[in-house]
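User: Please write out a complete single-protein record containing the residue sequence and its fold in token form, without commentary.

AI:
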Amino acid sequence: MAESFNYAELFNYIEIVLWSLFGFVLLVKSRDSKPDQTHIFYISSIAFFLFAISDYIEIQTGAWWKPWWLFALKAACVIAFLFCIFKYLKTKSNG
């Protein structure tokens, strides 16, 4: 009997590549950034790599909300993204 194709799993693999690519680009960007922005790019890069790892774990568990710590990891990444956006915009407005 043939296995059915799992679109959710495929989508998660695509997300893993996408988030990892974002993390890599931000890590490279940190090398050319202003001194007051370097830490923002480092933090966002790490958050994207962790988000990619969380998608891999999600494939194994079958849900983004279980186990509880996977949900906590994803929430922490989103908070880090928002923090980095806020800090980046603040440094841009300061000159």
In short: The radius of gyration is 16 Å. The chain has a mean pLDDT of 94.
